[in-house]
Amino acid sequence: MSSEPVQGFLKLCASQGPQARRTRNPSEYHVACGPGRVNGQEQSVMQFTLLSMRGPLTFPPFARGSPMRRALLASAFAIAASFATADDSLSLEWAVDAHYADAQALARAAAHFQHVRVDRKHQRLSVITDATGMDLLRSEGLEVSIDHVASAQLHQALARADAARRSGVVEYGSSGCPGIPGYACYRTVEGTYQTMDDLVVAHPGIVEIDAIGPSWKKTQNASQGYEMRALRITNLATAATDPDRPKLVAFSSIHAREYAPAELMTRFAEWLVNGYGIDPEATWLVDHNDFRLILQANPDGRKKAEDGILWRKNIDNIDGACGSSNFVGIDLNRNFPFHWNITNGGGSSGDTCDETYRGPLRQSEPETENLVGYVAGTCNDAGECSGGVFADRRSGSMAGTAGSDDGNAAPDDTRGIFFDMHSYSDLVLWSWGDTSTAAPNGTQLRTLGRRLAWFNDYTPQQADELYATDGTTDDTIYGLLGVPAYTFELDDEFFQQCASFENTTVQKNIDALRYSARSLHAPYRLPAGPDTLAVDANGADLVATGTPVDITAQLDSSRFNQSNGTETVRPIAGANAYVDQLPWDAGATPIAMNAADGAFNSSSETANASLSTTGWSNGRHRVMVQGVAATTAQAGTPNAVWVDVAGAGDIATLGGHVTAQGNGAPVSATVTVSNVGTGEIRSVDTNPADGAYARTMLAGSVAVHVSAQGFLDEDLPAVNLVGGQTTVRDFAMIPRCTLFEDDIEAGCAAWVAQSPWSIVGNVSGNTTQAWSTGTYADNLQRSLTSSATISVTGYSDFEFAFDDRCDTENGYDFGYAEFSTDGGGSWSRVYGCDGRPSWASHRIELPAAVNGASGLKLRFLFTSDSSVSRPGWAIDNVRLTAGGEACRAQQQSDLIFADGFDFD
Ligand SMILES: [Zn+2]
């Protein structure tokens, strides 16, 4: 069954009301509806056979024409469409809502599922599940309904990924690395590994890769599968003399279909590494802590999920053999050794075909063995471990006793934090998952959990609160080692849309991770104290020795997520600054700060201090600020700023104006000054009113880089700055070059257009001429391609800009913008749209891989499916601009050097 007839059938049936009857085979249905058109042919009655993959679909005996019956059937069609588009898809599932009566009913219902979203206010839960799951909910006495909108989104997402995969077109995400088809923001396993390699090459002093063992597939065939990797980020030069620095260990995407976690942690790694030496917070975190990020914790499974399959487990089809190849494998997050299978089936499954199959033995899988060996080392049955990244700070036996918390609390001075990043459900979870008893460190785990959940606004709770789990990563790390261990369930979908991932998920979770990193020294203590949000030297980032520096810090002790129980908020009793010391260093000297409002007495305070720099050595100094809570005197999570000190005669100033070449208009630009020899780097923005800037810097030979939107970057590789003097450099910025431009007012010569593309003057919302598909036919794949190959030799930093109106059938008919560097032989996709009847302007940076190409072709590719038409896709004002040396040479033929502009 191909996808096209099924989708057409699906949509037609949805509008007309289908009927189904069971055949003699209990897992087979004949579904019929009509009359109507499919693939252009008039049909009186259409029918197809719906086969259940995993046994019979149980259609309850609703009366014909009842809403529930129609709902079930519509969902069945959606499932069938998914079958047809992704032939080994696990998408026998849809989005289901259920109303529960009380907490006991919620717990009973939730126990049947992973990834339950709970709306406690309206007593509703939402799950993605199949017919069996719906029966389970009903058997617990819940009212069940299908969320058609969410179900359609789920199936569209799967279909979109599948279409992208089948097209063979490479999509690039914002990282510049190839992304998962249909979800370009998520790096593939190879893209993630490439990023790790690139980070090591670019920053060998702070990044290395630990190979931690082969994936299951690689154990079967050394030429296949993956060597699993941990990305290690720390100051490697000082690591050997400071082996006990606090560790942050994170696993991500151990459940393969959870796209977002691996990318989130890759972004966090990039924040740490790229901020090192530039951002004071990132720098002290890397200098004094040790990050171990297993970005792809289940690479074999992830590779399957990248094909648009909702794959969760590893791919071990020996231990995890199952009659259907779609359900083989072991749930690695039920295969961890501590208290493995302790809940007698409540927290994991013994059925090899189940999503939560725990494996035949604890730690039976190579992935589990690699991860436990790396983090905990070798552990005996008494739960004593040695040789791993974390020290063992807690008793607790491997096998344990059901319902018991088994062992003592880890001491308050335990260092480090463990994360296992999953999606989805909007949760921050901590141990225990296998019993409702609070963990021995439960109060402290809860305090930090509520801090973390303040940042991402997820619900903080003990993992067992909704349903039991056993053999999990976090219970094993906390249970065996005593390290605080958290599972995040990010946002709302396995295959989360890139727009929501980029716009919301990344920043709020990186903020939570930064807070956790600043707490690594004492995660059981610091979160009970105030958080230092920011420290500011008020522009005094470089001062002459002896010049006093005013330091300001913002502190807040109230940042707890209070949506699930109440954490005590203590007023801030004081704040201290520390110069070149960590607050917890032996013999550290606190400098008391003042409350800006006169008294430390509330949960939000601004603290300030005037620090004398007399006697400070020349060079960079770190000022760290830590708040103290009332009543408990507990110190909180610190933050830092830099103050650089030099002799007055050593400080120089670079100043001038940045204007546009030609008309001399002031330009909003950023001027970055760097000294390659010393690593000093400082930047300043121009005043938009007159383009003026001034930047202090240590005397010496510096490089100056000026960047501004719409202009070529300007670089002065060597400017000699003299101490005590101001050196003037003005910049006349050269506009970027336009390599191709068509406003579609001068005819069609620039394009090769396949029908139905044509130039029209009547597209809604546009008074000029534009290319348009118009109201289109079914089953099209038609391109509008630039006729000439655009010569781009010597150009770089390409930007592809156009306006469009994408009034297509939402979720079924698409417009794509693509480029080719081989004359149209192969195409790379940089843009896709559907279902948007308004005009929008786009500026798309082409990936760095385009730099160095000799020629470029652009095209707009329209695709429609087997039914339903709309006014179509329209394109106007197409433009390709570029920078690079060829552009500079071209523009310099007209260049008049502005006064003061020169090359030193
Ligand atoms: Zn998961």
Report on this model:
With 904 residues, this protein is an alpha+beta fold. The protein has 5 domains: 3-164, no CATH class; 175-518, Zn peptidases (Aminopeptidase, 3-Layer(aba) Sandwich), CATH 3.40.630.10; 529-646, Immunoglobulin-like; 648-733, Carboxypeptidase-like, regulatory domain (Immunoglobulin-like, Sandwich), CATH 2.60.40.1120; 737-888, Jelly Rolls (Sandwich), CATH 2.60.120. The chain has an 8-stranded mixed beta sheet with strand order 13-14-16-15-19-22-20-21, with helices on both faces. Strands 10, 41, 44, 45, 47, 48 and 50 form a 7-stranded mixed beta sheet that branches. Strands 40, 42, 43, 46, 49 and 51 form a 6-stranded antiparallel beta sheet that branches. Strand 47 and strand 48 form a beta hairpin. Helix 2 (67-85) runs parallel beside helix 5 and helix 13 crosses helix 15 (498-518). The longest helix is centred in the middle third of the chain and has 21 residues, at 498-518. The chain is globular, with a radius of gyration of 30 Å. Zinc ion (ZN) is lined by residues 255, 258, 422. The site of zinc ion (ZN) has 3 residues, from loops.
